[in-house]
Amino acid sequence: MKAVFANRSLSTKLLLLTIIFVFVAEFVVLVPSIAKQRRDWFMMRFEEAYLASLALEGPREGAADEKLVRQLFSTANILGVTINSDDMRMLILAPEINPHGAPNMVRVDFTRENSMDMIANAWGTFFSRGDHLIQATGQPEFAIGQTVDIIVSQKALRDDLYAYARNIFLLSLVISTLTAGLVYWALNRMIVRPVKRLTENITAFDADPENAHGILQPSGRKDEIGAAEESLAAMEKSVRDLLGERRRLAALGAGISKISHDLRNILASAQLMSDRLAKSEDPSVRKLSPRLISALDRAIALSRDTLTFGRMETRLLEKKSFPLRELVAEVFDDTAAMGVTAENNAPESLTIIADRTQLYRALFNLVRNAVDALQETGGEDQKGTVTIDAYVEHGAVAILIADTGPGLPDHAKADLFEPFKGSQKPGGSGLGAAIAAEIIRAHGGLLTLEKSDDTGATFRITLPGPAS
User: Fold this and answer.
1) What's the angle, vertex CA 116, arms to CA 110 and CA 118, rounded to 5?
2) What angle (nearest 5°) sits at the alpha carbon of residue 201, between those of residues 196 and 203?
3) Which one of 77, 138, 175, 303 has the minimum C-beta count within 10 Å?
4) Within the chain, how many helices (H) and strands (E) appear?
5) Residue 6 has pLDDT above 60, yes or no
6) What is the DSSP letter of 214?
7) Nearest residue to 346 via CA among 335, 366, 331, 361
């Protein structure tokens, strides 16, 4: 059955299934119908045999011609008739049996036959072979207190059942074809054609998603297909808008990357000149130099972060095993600042498997953000502490980056990991936390803000194992 429907269209499958189901229903009806046809066939012959026997028993002057009655029996395929009453048994017609080979005799009593026996005997006759005799006992409608035994040909009964089944089959064929045609027309119009329209639209939209004319126009139906059309149209419009926005952002990003690259070179030259100005003996120049140097540092950092984020691409991580404590020490060395204390509490025995370069970038951005926050709020001597702890929990590695700064304002927490939105300092790019979050996601981990209040902020990195 699966092979029959494998390469057929939805319309063809619908038509074939309708025809098959109607035939199954007709077959279910045919099973008891054959049994009823067999019973009706016998009951009609019981009546004919009883009436013919009455004609033969009547007064001689009004009795029917015996030869004519026998011809009537023969026409009805009745080979023998016996009338039974309470006190007598009268033979009306004796069967003519070939003396060289008497056929087998099958006996059936309709006065005792139940529904299951009727069905079993009917189909037994339907699939029988040969021409045996059947002796059937039944009670005609008008024979009060009497029964009739008739002897008939099994082949004659079987031929009648064949003819009846053939007529039922032809009628079923007509009904199933008509029903299938009407059901096919209705379902094809209400379901198949709309689904085909949806399929064609999806295929066309997939080929050219940025074509405005490829967006589906809903038909306005109020049923489930109408809802699917509305949803598909909304989705296609959203995808088209997102693709257009992505294309514009890609072009804008490429332009910004080029500008940032050139700007960074210019700012680097300006920084060298600002260093010379800082050595000037002119008091006014020496006074303005720190502010100029600070502004140039922020501009260079912004250019660097923009280029870094623009170059981020999805790629295979180069994972290897290494001690986490050594990496943390390297990060602290590269982010050291005057007055900021660094505490490396990562266990010396903790070895993780990750991309060392990418994990360094994530930790560097988070630590640098913490150091910047402490430098802006701390005193001249002791500005605060940045601490990194690490431990294994439930088969995963947890890394905590904590500082003793002022914490994050409430309005910054919602967009903390969104590019260009999470900056909390003047001139900041807002890319540090976004870069770190993307790197951790690439490792299959998660970066979250675990705590943020007036005692400081704590970020939590969770990396999947194995770890040792």
Assistant:
1) 35
2) 95
3) 175
4) 12, 12
5) no
6) G
7) 331
Length of the chain: 468
Does the bond joining 32 to the residue before it have cis omega, within 30 degrees of 0? no
Does the pLDDT of residue 301 top 90, yes or no?
A: no
pTM reported for the whole predicted model: 0.44
Q: In whole angstroms, give the CA distance from residue 106 to residue 102.
A: 12
The DSSP bridge pattern shows strands 133-138 and 105-109 to be parallel
DSSP 282-317: -HHHHHHHHHHHHHHHHHHHHHHHHHHHHT------
User: Which of 59-73, 310-324, 350-364 is least confident?
Assistant: 59-73
CA distance 140 to 152: 16
Percent of the chain with pLDDT over 90: 11
352's enclosing H/E stretch is strand 351-355
Is residue 174 exposed (0-12), middle (13-18) or buried (19+ Cβ within 10 Å)?
exposed
Q: Are 161 and 38 in contact (CB under 8 A)?
A: yes
* 39 pLDDT above the threshold of 80: yes
Helix axes 115-126, 154-187, angle to 10 degrees: 100
pLDDT of residue 215: 82
Q: pLDDT exceeding 70 applies to what percent of the chain?
A: 73
pLDDT digits (tens, 9 = 90+) for 402-422: 998 888 877 777 777 776 555
Tokens of 180: 């299938």
Q: Which stretches of 335-392 are DSSP H helices?
A: 356-377
Q: Are 401 and 359 in contact (CB under 8 A)?
A: no
- What the block records as the tokens of 433 is 């936390």
Contact between residue 429 and residue 306 where contact means Cβ atoms under 8 Å apart: yes
C-alpha span between 205 and 136 (Å, rounded): 74
- Return the pLDDT at 380: 55
Helix (H, G, I), strand (E, B) or coil at 449: strand
User: How many other CB atoms sit within 10 Å of the CB of residue 221?
Assistant: 14
* Mean predicted confidence (pLDDT) in 271-287: 66
Amino acid at position 127, single letter = F
> Which tens digits make up the pLDDT trace of 421-465?
555 554 445 677 888 888 898 888 999 999 988 888 999 999 987
Contacts 24+ apart (CB under 8 A), 309-313: 309/419, 309/429, 309/431, 309/434, 309/435, 310/253, 310/256, 310/257, 310/260, 311/257, 312/435, 312/438
CA distances from 308 to 79, 346, 366, 440, 456 (A): 107, 27, 15, 16, 27
Query: How many beta carbons lie within 10 A of that of residue 208, not counting itself?
Result: 10
Task: Compute φ and ψ for 105, nearest 5 degrees.
Answer: -115, 125
